[in-house]
Request: fold
Amino acid sequence: DHDLLALTADYSERGWKADDALLHALAAVTSAPDQDAVGAAATAIYRPWLDTAARAMQALTSAPTQGNNYVAGPPAARANGVVTLFVDGLRLDVAHRVSDRLANAGMNVEVATSLAALPTVTQTSKPALMPIAPGFLTGGPELHAQRSSTGTRAQIAVLRTLMGENDVQVLGPTGTGQPGGAAWAEVGEVDSRGHEMGAGLAHYIDQEVERIAVRVRGLLEAGWEQVNVVTDHGWILLPVALEKVNLPPASTLIKKGRCARLKEGAV
Reply:
């Protein structure tokens, strides 16, 4: 038996170390035979833990008695002197690497966790954490965010406009803005590299960590008082194929690659 608080606390305190251990193992090998050996070990040791944890979380978020206990974290701060730095797919183990890198450079660092907005895909979870006041965004009919006043799908141009209306500067890849206000910036390619490279991502994680750390340092040196590094979702990575379950079309109202809206009464 599990409860949501216990499950998330266990992952936040120690579960992420299993993910980190696999990434280090994958990064330590390059030849095909060595990669096969790591893959066999991951299948035997890591995958059962991963599968059990994922199914436990899914059960707790989908059961009628538990759904109301799932509360996504708050949106990013809109405080003066604070810049929010978004990293797509900054899983907790990678976030700890960023934290260590910044702490070793003499910065004051804190790591905190919260639940992502459901479904945990960028189109949903990223708008939910942007520094936009409540009421400006709402859920759309096809599992996307939309502007409340017009029903316009919340694509990047709409989101940038909304941040501007909330007095939040939107910084370019190297911009530093006006540190006296509030700002939003983005950095890193963890998510896109993962989709492109699969298990090969492990060899590039530390490069991504360094890119994030350099951007944080640059913003602080430009005069920002605080940099809040945030993310939209984590990810699952295995050097062997993941199980795929196809939902029957008759059971869904909307079906996408990694999420769907079920019809009333569908099992």
User: Anything to note?
Assistant: The chain has a mean pLDDT of 92. Residues 32-62 form the longest helix (31 residues).
